[in-house]
Design a protein that fits this description.
Number of helices: 5
Radius of gyration: 63 Å
Structural class: alpha+beta
Oligomer: single chain
Number of strands: 35
Strand content: 35-45%
Largest sheet: 5 strands, mixed
Helix content: 10-25%
Distance between the termini: 200 Å
Shape: rod-shaped
């Protein structure tokens, strides 16, 4: 009984061992065996799969070739998977010629679904072996199709709200949704909502759907946000100093969606828009001082308009509009000439010249002219100089005052002369009357007063000399005739006679 029981137990163990070897993919015979780690593998379409296995062979054998095949070898040698054109570039043998027989298959497709076998050949006659059972490879999509929709559809205007929805037709339930903008993760969930959308939210969005079989990324959806022009600015080229006569371009830059289709240019203090100024660049081919000022542009698209800040345009130019103005002193003894001009940078030097002379007669903004003649000024800054028109100065100072003095003295002295003449005539009449009444009067006797006025008896220094000084000595200091300290006694005598009678 014990012997039968022992035999029965050995048979059970042998059967159990054979069963275990069969289900694990090991078929052994006298030291020959191939062990497949997994009898079946499920792969996601487009993924990479590694089939793992090991093999053994009797001692004294040396492996000459080891390969995988999709055919069970019967009679003829099965083809090597590496030689199959459908697998070229996608299959790689990772094993060796000792005991490892791993295989890697990349970018799997539904056509790759099959049973795969490992086979090796040694250097001994009849020394080849192929692992029975093989490995079953199945290929699945999981999610098959993933798409993104947007609500509301149509134009998306800045400030509105937008919702993106991810859809998948996977046979197995989707476990997660992930949202990407470009390569950046922005949200998780089946929907992604953006409130008060702005220009920074424009871009390409994708969602990734995942389930137990794998994951799939949707095609990109472009989110296009419309907004009016913003960040408007004016730039000037060339930059730096702008000299009169050069060409200048003013360019209006902006951020807008859709792009700006119309630009309008303005100059501060000007009424209305500048002519021929509808382009992004406003050009001045030959700039001059009148073009200096502050410029502004307005950018317009379908969503609205926006103005830029003012940009200053400064033109450097030589002096122009140089002119001379004249002003007299209160007493009229001289005149002051003032030179004025328009220049940028301001005039550095003013130089005065008298026509007919080659050397300057003065410098500075103003010049005091003491002689008659024609004068002009030259204004100069760092670019060049400019000459003014000449102005004529006559001798006014002392000459003008002397003329007024002569006229005054003549008028005064003529008044005195006629007054004295009247007094003399009156006294002659009175003297004749007295002679008739007074017969005892000495006829040769003369009145002292008339003696002073008698042309026959007057001396060279009498009052008539005073009256004739205007004509006989025009070069004398005529003002002295009115000076109490310098006028002659005869003048005082005439004055006394005038006021006494």
């Amino acid at each position: 009984m014990q012997a039968e029981l022992l035999i029965s137990l050995r048979m059970s163990l042998t059967v159990s061992l054979l069963f275990l070897l069969f289900i694990s993919g090991v078929v052994a015979q006298d030291g020959w065996a191939v062990n497949y780690n997994h009898k079946s593998i499920c792969a996601l379409k487009g993924s990479t799969v590694t089939i793992e296995c090991t093999y053994t062979y009797p001692s004294g054998h040396s492996v000459q070739k080891a390969f995988w095949t999709k055919q069970w070898g019967q009679g003829s040698e099965p083809p090597d998977l590496l030689d199959d054109p459908e697998y070229r570039g996608r299959v790689q043998y990772l094993g060796d010629k000792q005991h490892s027989c791993n295989l890697r298959l990349s970018d799997v497709t539904e056509e790759d679904q099959s049973k795969y076998y490992f086979r090796f050949i040694t250097d001994q006659p009849g020394g080849s072996w192929q692992g029975a059972g093989g490995v079953d490879l199945s290929v699945t999509d999981g999610p098959k199709s993933v798409s993104v929709s947007i609500s509301p559809s149509g134009e998306i205007v800045e400030g509105s709200s937008v919702t993106l929805t991810c859809s998948s037709d996977a046979e197995s339930p989707v476990q997660s949704y992930t949202w990407f903008k470009g390569s950046s993760l922005v949200a998780k969930g089946e929907t992604y909502t953006v409130n008060k959308i702005s220009s920074v939210d424009s871009g390409e969005y994708k969602c990734r759907s995942s389930n137990e079989h794998g994951e799939k990324l949707s095609e990109a959806l472009t989110l296009n946000v419309l907004y009016p022009p913003k960040s408007i600015s004016v730039s000037i080229s060339p930059s730096g100093e702008i000299v009169e006569g050069s060409s200048v371009n003013l360019t209006c830059s902006s951020d807008a969606n859709p792009p700006v289709k119309n630009y309008t240019w303005f100059k501060k203090l000007n009424k209305g828009a500048l002519q021929n100024s509808k382009r992004q660049t406003y050009s001045i081919s030959y700039i001059n001082s009148a073009d200096s000022g502050e410029y502004q542009c307005m950018a317009t698209n379908t969503q609205g308009s926006q103005y830029s800040e003012y940009k200053s345009l400064t033109v450097l130019y030589a002096p122009n509009k140089v002119w001379v103005s004249i002003s007299e002193t209160a007493e009229g003894s001289s005149v002051t000439l003032t030179c004025s001009s328009d220049a940028n940078p301001p005039v550095q030097n003013y130089t005065w010249f008298k026509e007919g002379g080659s050397s300057p007669v003065g410098s500075g903004h103003s010049y005091r002219a003491l002689q008659s003649g024609s004068y002009y000024c030259v204004a100069q800054n760092e670019y060049r100089s400019q000459k003014s028109a000449a102005v004529t100065v006559t001798e006014k100072g002392v000459g003008k005052s002397a003329l007024y003095a002569v006229i005054g003295v003549i008028a005064v002295r003529l008044s005195v002369f006629f007054a004295v003449f009247y007094v003399r005539r009156k006294r002659r009449v009175n003297s004749a009357d007295d002679a008739n009444q007074k017969q005892n009067v000495d006829p040769n006797a003369k009145d002292d007063t008339y003696t002073a006025l008698d042309p026959v008896s007057r001396s060279s220094d009498d009052v008539y000399n005073t009256l004739t000084t205007v004509h006989s000595s025009p070069s004398d200091d005529l003002y002295s005739a009115l000076d109490p300290q310098s006028r002659s006694p005869e003048y005082d005598t005439l004055a006394i006679l005038l006021f006494q009678n």
